[in-house]
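thread: overnight batch results

M.L. [08:02]
morning all. the overnight job finished for the chain we discussed friday. pasting input first so we're all looking at the same thing
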Amino acid sequence: MASIKPSAHLNEVRYEIRGALTRRARELEAAGLPIIKLNIGNPARYGFTVPEHLRQAIAAHLHESEAYGHEQGLEEAREAIAAQQRARGARQVEVERIFIGNGVSELIDLSLRALLQPGDEVLLPSPDYPLWSAATILNGGVPRYYRCLAENRHLPDPEEIEALVTPRTRALVLINPNNPTGAVYPRALLEQIVAIAARHRLLLLCDEIYDEILYDGTHFQPVAQVAGNTPCISFGGLSKVHRACGYRVGWLSLSGDVASTREYRDALQLLAALRLCANVTAQWAVIPALQDTPTIGALTAPGGRLHEARKAVLEGVAASDYLDLVTPGGALYAFPRVRTDRIANFNDDTFALRLLEEESVLVVPGSSFNVPTSRHVRLTLLPQPAQLRDVFVRIERVLERMAAEQTPRAAIA
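M.L. [08:03]
and the structure it wrote out:
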């Protein structure tokens, strides 16, 4: 029989976080080799648990979760989200401008599908979370990347962003706190970026899923507050801050001028209705998640597990002869870089494969995040601090071998 050909849209789509390296890791595990997995931000796989009061809220409403719900989500949950957004300074946020989805991933796809015509452009950070690039391409759009270089603390250059705008540009994506770098954008920078969006009539798409995961007094500035009447979508959810990835509950909040976004809001509602509704059962956890005492702070404060894991990463990089790192201010990841003066001819894909094959550690190459030439790898801060300290011993061994394999001339270049 003739083979079934997949869609050509997939030719440019990558998601190496769960790609070839992960498949190889599964093969090694099947052969009996234990693998240290640092490739994904999935808290429950590292011993984190959902706060008990969220579980109780779901259990108490199981009998109310057996029918399809409203296509935009439970009204009570949307009211809680709207209240949170208004408290953060977002303008013109009402219940009918809130959409709950099966995770932020689904809502990213819906937001771009409702917006793009074939050939429209979306400004994306490089590195980005690759779902953003994939959703842009799969919905007929064209990604245009603005750089977030380590030399600039992984913050974007507003002048570079504006230089990328063309008559086909429709939206500007911000990931803050950032995945994969951990960068947290200061207000002054966001004000410049919002001004660009306002000048060129771009929709701001703000991935803020890590909004409360912050370290050492770092301040998170919601973009919607800065945006004012400029149309803005803010994405949030239960997966990271509340350690509930498997619940698949995310939301988007549409803020800014109502008249100019009315047709777009209606398009979002149509797409939401076509998939009937999001998971009803888990939506009951939204209300206590947003209204009760936050629980993430105990983990990110000094002595908390995430803070100590980050400390172990910072110490591992500081002790390395080969690595440097922009200290992550938020989120669940670090994005260390191999120094050019130590290993000149470095390939992040080769390194990641060798680290897996030789030292049983799974990380994600930086090039997987739509960086043209990368010397970075991304690793998660979710493992125990002691395990992360061991990981850096293993990383150093592979880098030592790679350095030794280069000729003296290449090493000096």
